[in-house]
TrEMBL record:
Similarity remark: Belongs to the phosphohexose mutase family.
Ranges for domain Alpha-D-phosphohexomutase alpha/beta/alpha: 43-182, 206-306, 318-439
Organism of this sequence: Lutibacter oricola
Domain of life of the native organism: Bacteria
Protein name: Phosphomannomutase
Keyword Glycoprotein in annotation: no
Pfam families: PGM_PMM_I, PGM_PMM_II, PGM_PMM_III
Gene3D superfamilies in UniProt: Alpha-D-Glucose-1,6-Bisphosphate, subunit A, domain 3, Alpha-D-phosphohexomutase, C-terminal domain
Amino acid sequence: MNTILEKAQLWLTDTFDSETQQEIQNLIDNDQDQLADRFYKNMEFGTGGMRGVMGAGINRINKYTLGKATQGLSNYLIKTFPNKDLKVAIAFDCRHNSKSFGKLVADVLSANGIKVFLFEDLRATPELSFSVKHLGCDAGIVLTASHNPPEYNGYKVYWADGGQIVPPQDGDIINEVNNLDFSEIKFNANEDLIEIIGEKVDNAFIDASVKNGTFSATKGRDDLKIVFTSLHGTSITAIPNAFEKAGYTDVNIVEEQRVPNGDFPTVASPNPEEPAALKMATDLAEKINADIVIGTDPDCDRLGIAVRDLEGNMKLLNGNQTMCLMTNFLINNWKQEGKLNGKQFVGSTIVSTNLVNEIADSYGVETKVGLTGFKWIAKMVREAEGKQDFIGGGEESFGYMVGDFVRDKDAVTATLLACEIAAQAKAKGSSMYKELLQIYVDNNMYKEHLIAIVKKGMDGAEQIAQMMVDLRENPVAQIDGSNVTYVYDYDASTKTNLISGKVESIDVPKSNVLIYHTEDGTKVAARPSGTEPKIKFYFSVKEELCCIEKAKEVEASLDTKIQRIIAEMKLN
C-alpha cells in the first residue's frame, strides 16, 4: 500500500492544477499531521452522501474528488442505460464554492454526453429531489453539507425516483469511482448540453408543496402568527413563497438571518436541532407574541420548531416530537377522509422514537422501520409502489417527508404541515403543544435524548471504532436496573435475545449500529455518524401519562432516568 507521502506526491503531477500542487507541497514541507489527515483515506459516501472539509487531498472536498465522483457516476449511468439520452439535474446551496462546484459537476457530466439541468442559483435540496422526477431525469446531484460548519461541503446523488441512491447503486457507483484515475476525469464541458433552470421549476415545486402540505380545513391560517428563519440558508428561496400561496399572512422573517451566507455569521452552528441556532427567532417570537417558530438548516431539508408550552413559554420541540405530531395529524386526516383501508404505511428509522409505531398501530397503520437516513424511507416508498400508500415519514434528526412527491426530507412541505397543525389547534382553542401532550396521554409519554461525542481525524476514527468494539465485546446486561431483553447488531445483522440466548437474523442492509432494548421499554443506541467525526448515543425512555396535568411531573421523572443511564454508561 502506498504511504501517505506517496499518495500526496501524486497530487504534484500535471494531472492537478498549479494551485492544488502548491497547497500539497506546502503541507509536505510544513504540516505532516494535516497531510496525514488529508491522505489517510478516500472521501467516502456515508448516510448523507459525500461530505467533508474543503481543500486539496483525497480526504477532502475539491475539484478532483468531486470530479472523480461525477466521472464515476457518468460511467455507471452510461453502462446501466446504454443508448439512452441521459439527463441529470443539479442543485447547490449557499455554502462557499457550492455554485462553482455545481458548474464543475455539470461540466463533467456534459463532457460525458449527458444532458444537464443546472439551477441558476441556490435552491432547496427537496426541490432537487422533486425536479429529478419532474424533469424525467435519470439521476440528480446536490452540492451541500447540510448543517456542518462553514469549512464543509458535500455531494449527494439521487436516482430517477427522486430518492438518494441505495444498494446496489451506491456500491456500484463507488466501484466505478474507485477504479478511476484522476487523469481520466473529463472536465471539458459541452455547454450545449447544459440547460439553466429556475422559475418554471420553482413554481411547479411550490405548487406541489402547497398541495401536499395543506389540508381542507383553512380556518385559522390568518390567525396564526409565525416567525421564520432561514439561518442564512436556501429556504429563503422557497418557504416565503409557499407561505403566501398557502394563505398564511402573518409571517415574520428574522431579517438578520435572511440573506444566504456560507459563513452563517449569526450562529455558532446553523443546525435547527440546537436551541442556540433558533435564539434570534425565539427572541422575536417573544417580542411579537408569535404562536410558532420555524427554522431550517442551510439546504432546507430539516426544520426546528418552537411552540408555546402550557405556561406560554416558547419551547423547542425535538425531532421525535415533531414527527409524532405530524404522523398523528396525517393519519388522522386520512381517517377523516375515509381513505384508511389497511394498505397504508408510515416510515421511521431504527434510532427514532417508538411512539410513532404506537400511534400508527392505534390507527391500524403499518410502520416500516429502516436504517438512519431518508434514502431508506425513499426506498420503502419505491418498493411499496402499487401495493401500499405512503402517508409520511420522519426521523429523529429533525426531518420529515409528507407524501411521496419529494423522496427526501423536505422542510418546505413540513413547514406548511407544522403550521396547519398549529393553526387548526389554535382555531379549536387548543395548541400544538397540547396536541402533543394528548398524544402522550393516548399512548405513552416518551422522552428521547442524544449525545454526540466528537473525535476528529485519524486518531478519532480509531477511537470511535474501538468504542464500538468494546460495546460488542462487553454487551450491557442491565440499563437502569431493567434487564436488557434484545440486542440488535446491525453490522452483524443479528437480533439476540439475552434472556433465551436465541439469535435471529435481521433482514436490513449492514450498518455499524448497536441497539439495546430493555424490559421497561428503554432503548439505547450507539452509532458512528456517517457524515461527521462523531459517535452518537440515542436514549429513549417511556412512562404512562394519565392526564395532561401530570405531564411536567412525568417528564421530569423521564429526564432523571436518562441522566442515570448516561452516568451508568460513563458517557457524561
